[in-house]
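FAQ: What does the model actually see?

It sees only this:
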Amino acid sequence: MPYQVYEKLFYALLSKCQLKEYQTKQFKFKNPLYALDSSTIDLSLSVFEWAKFRRTKGGLKLHSLLDVRSQIPTFNVITEAREADVKVAQRTDFPLSPDSIITFDRAYIDFSLFQAYEKKNVFFVTRAKDNLRFQFLGQQDIPNKKGLQFDHIVQIQNPTQRQKYPGKLRLIGFYDFNNNKTYQFLTNNFKLAASSIAEIYISRWQIELFFKWIKQNLKIKTFLGASKNAVLSQIWVAMIYILLLAYIKFQTKFPASLLTLSRKLQESLFFRLHLIDVAF
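And it is asked to produce this:
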């Protein structure tokens, strides 16, 4: 069966999910919040000859847009492992409604991409690269909260970059006492508190945990078939499984994580139990 069948099934099931009902992460703001990132799935060239990545390595790359509040992937793109993250983001029309917030790491910094989000009324939050230079335009009030260092209004100094994104940006300094390090967050959102911007970027780690979880628990590292269709089918089936887990968790009001629920389901495979009953 072609993998597109499972891909369409995933989005058909996703359309039935009212993601607001599945929300577990609470924030002070109401904007939809997403994290964008990718993870490379290593494949052996001796078995998966079609997935050549480097001279001695093979692989695919899974790009996911994760709803941070519900912990559900809302959009997935599977590419060759050599595909640059920012290039995929530039050409992919991710389903982001106006006033949504998307957070990503520095691999996605591109001022044409920033301008595309600006035109769609989408807010972005990322970390500023060390080599970026800004023109200082002003500053916002800094609340007396632990870790906040500055809240500047800036503009890109480089003429070429400024031509791609001529608007204003907000540069926030935050000191992490645990790691003894200062982070600089870059955003086009001037309404939320600086502490909320820092919290948004910190929440980006949820997608890192998501990739780690699916690789360790959903057999994304080992595959049942060697063809491209078999590998892609298995990845999409894993995504479908996540949606079903989320549905059971919501219907049963299961208090623990999806990982705990998944383990309970695995432990009950040899018992004649209704899936809904397993979560109680």
